[in-house]
Amino acid sequence: MKRTISILGSTGSIGRQTLDVAQACGHKVAALTVNRSVELAEEQARQFQPELVVAVDEAAARDLKQRLADTSIRVVGGREGLMEAATLPQADTVVTAVVGIAGLEPTLAAIDAGKRIALANKETLVCAGDLVMARAEEKGAEIVPVDSEHSAIFQCLQGCKDRGEVKRLIITASGGPFFGKTREELEYVTRAQALRHPNWAMGAKITIDSATLMNKGLEFIEAMRLYRMPPQQIQVVVHRESIVHSLVEFNDGAILAQLGTADMRVPIQYALTWPERTQGPATPLDLLSCPPLTFAKPDPDTFRCLGLALECAQKGGTSTAILNGANEVAVELFLQDKIGFLDIARLVEGALERVASKPADTLEDVLEADRAARQAVHDMLI
């Protein structure tokens, strides 16, 4: 089935790879959104000829409008443009590849418009998963995960008619660039070292989250919300080769796993074509050239971000929004060389101690928890 898609965050890693899939599989692009990457946005717009291009940064939008003045493409700026792209009538599918909690409100708007959500923004479910899933059920909107791990679980659950058959979900983690290191060794790691992921080519923020293992903690919480599973039925294992993307164990002892190359175009394509499968641009896995597959326990004490996320998964409420908001600020500070690697977890833990968690009954509850967490991190640096 050919889709007509809006891509929220088209110049990031997921956005660029979604355009690869769209070109290879013949999907039509109705809208593109960027923050301020004007040159790449212009290149994408001229190639794919969407109806709408949005630059959230107003100055970037003005620049982009001038650059595309010789086309019929409509250019809009600001958050209002992002919301319009999420609800564009011509699009049947919205790829939410905006980084961070900024993707939450556009995702809810797309759900309200009845779109299929190809969900690459894990923070949406981490911060407000119960609200989002309830809204999707109410509106009849499909949420199909793009994260390789959750796509793997989604695929393994096809044909499972009763979640009661599932014993546990097993989420694999590469372990990032620092697997096996001690806290003493991590104290002085650099930004460049943390950005050197052994297997995946990703954006800066998610690459740092992979290095701290926060990414796996966020995925743990996301799995709880997406698959309505309690935390005691979810496990994280380190799989250095990034070939087994996740597994599902059933009550009869059978385990189903999804294997593939470390190529995000595979789960992106499946999110667009599900329940169908078509040929695509990704290189297939060659089992005869695979290294041995290994599995190990993660170390949530050394990689404290993972431990904090698992604690918040148990606690629930707005604690997950506090966790995420504090982490977003801390990672940005690390990328600016303003704090050390281990300071990321220290700041997140400090925010969780300073901001009280409460039930996440409304969107306002979630957004206020996020705001308070960000402020708490800044306050700790004064």
Shape: globular
The CATH architecture of the largest domain? 3-Layer(aba) Sandwich
Determine the CATH topology of the largest domain. Rossmann fold
Helix-residue proportion: 40-55%
Describe what this molecule looks like in 3D.
The protein is globular, with a radius of gyration of 20 Å. The protein folds into three domains: 4-145, 3-Layer(aba) Sandwich (Rossmann fold), CATH 3.40.50; 148-261 and 270-294, no CATH class; 316-382, Rna Polymerase Sigma Factor, Chain: A. Helix 10 crosses helix 14 (319-335). With 382 residues, the protein is α/β, with parallel strands linked by helices. The chain contains 16 helices and eleven strands.
Task: Describe the structure concisely.
The protein is α/β, with parallel strands linked by helices. The protein has 16 helices and eleven strands. It is 47% helix and 15% strand.
